[in-house]
Amino acid sequence: MRNEPLAYRMRPTKIEEVAGQEAIIGKETALYRLIKNGHVPSMLLYGEPGIGKTSLAHAIAGSSDLPFITLNATVSGKKDVEDVVAESRITGKVLLFLDEIHRFNKLQQDTLLPHVESGAIVLIGATTENPYHDVNPAIRSRCGEIRQLTRLEPEDLLSVLNRALEDKSRGLGKTAIEITEKQLLTIAEGVNGDARKALNVLESIVVASDEIDGITIVEDSLLENLLGRIGLFGDNKGSHFYNLLSALQKSVRGSDVNASMYYLAHLLETGDLVAVSRRLLVMAYEDVGLASPEVGPHVLAATEAAVRLGMPEARIPLANAVIEMCLAPKSNSAYKAFDAAVQAINDGKTGDIPMHLRDAHYSGAAALGHVGYKYPHHTPLGEFGGWVNQQYLPDKVEGTEFYKPVISGQEKKMAAIYEKLKEFRKKK
Asked: Most buried of the four, 262, 321, 326, 411, by CB within 10 Å?
């Protein structure tokens, strides 16, 4: 058996061997037909680790007649790119797979530009980060395909695992292995759609299992032990982390407690407690807001307790906070009102501050006309406190309504007061 890991040896050698990703490289897709007809376009492949970006690039290379060169941007530099350019001048068009392309700085990426544009280099760039954020726009514009890969389904992973067990040249086909379909399914379902992890688990369990009469016997207990040590959550630095934060906020906004718990658990496993706490506090005021104004202070207390406690205890106050937000009446009216006011200002809808609202706490203010302000507390209005009918907005925007009440939870009472005050103003 060769020394390379099983996941490395079992990379597909042509596009027909690619597992999953039917929407990208399935037989009915334009990309599949382009490659089968001898044309490989420059492209960017985006997705989490282990979902097949490198494998797809190798499969495309195996299905084309182009010289294939691989570089990793974490260890390669401008000189390496220049060597690829020199190679293209000798051999003609080359296919360059540049892994972690987002790690290249602008100068390094710019070195590629004229050669990708001329067609001397066909570029397949792979990145775990959103290419619209982290890849030079000039590179993006020269890539005809920008594709986001998805995690593999268990049935796709079963295909990968069975191929590895049967392949006698690259896989484990020369080894007699007793492993059940249920055990294979356990691996497929336990690696979170990551083909590399699935093959790593398979190889590890085969090596760790006992051999009886020339047959390697896979035991359930050993499989469970290995799967329990596999990390599934990624890191807290990349796009996936922000996708998880987005999914958590949208699940809370949608009042789905179970989805919210799932994404909260996923996020806390990454270890960035401060970032998660900050997002929860934003959500309390952005999505729950005036409908349940008590939620903001509750979430603040929960996040402060979580940071003080640290993990794993931090999960307790945060779980309370998330469920309270999920099931609370919701309103985004406050920040929407603010955004509307900002938009009005940016649109030029401004005017002079009414004279009676200007600062009058100095000698000479009256001479400037800063007079006429009526103190609301001097005019009680039922149980509301004090109110007086006077103009507050500048003349040019007088009558503009930025606030649109949401009839939800406690904001219903605020909305009723707001409407009543509007009626009073009309009697001016």
From this structure: 321
What is the Cα–Cα distance from 97 to 125, expressed in whole angstroms?
6
Say if residues 363 and 369 touch (Cβ distance below 8 Å): no
How many of the other CB atoms lie within 10 Å of CB of 152? 24
Residue 96's H or E segment, with its range, is strand 94-99
The reported pLDDT for the residue numbered 190 is 81
Under CATH, what is the fold of the domain 239-327?
Zinc Finger, Delta Prime; domain 3 (1.20.272)
pLDDT in tens, 107-140: 887 888 888 888 888 999 998 888 888 888 888 8
- Has domain 154-228 been given CATH number 1.10.260.40? no
pTM: 0.59
What does the alpha-carbon distance between residue 388 and residue 397 come to, in Å, rounded to a whole number? 20
Short-list 235, 328, 236, CA closest to 283:
328
- Domain range annotation of the chain: 21-148, 154-228, 239-327, 350-426
- For domain 21-148, the CATH architecture is 3-Layer(aba) Sandwich (3.40)
User: Kind and range of the H or E element at 221?
Assistant: helix 220-228
Amino acid 341 reads A
In tens, the pLDDT along 315-374 reads: 999 999 999 999 999 999 999 999 999 999 988 888 888 999 999 888 888 888 899 999
| 346: enclosing H helix or E strand | helix 333-346
* Cα 320–Cα 324–Cα 327 angle in degrees, nearest 5: 140
Q: How far is CA 363 from CA 140, 328, 352, in A?
A: 63, 51, 22
Cα-flanking dihedrals φ and ψ of residue 145, to 5°? -125, 130
Q: Which helix (H) or strand (E) holds 63?
A: none
H helices present in 51-105, as ranges: 53-62, 78-91
- Peptide bond preceding 312: is omega within 30 degrees of 0, i.e. cis? yes
Position 270 pLDDT exceeds 50: yes
Beta strand 121-127 with 94-99 is: parallel
Among 249, 316, 260, CA closest to 286: 249
Q: What is the pLDDT of residue 262?
A: 92
- Going by C-alpha positions, the residue among 155, 210, 212 that lies closest to residue 187 is 155
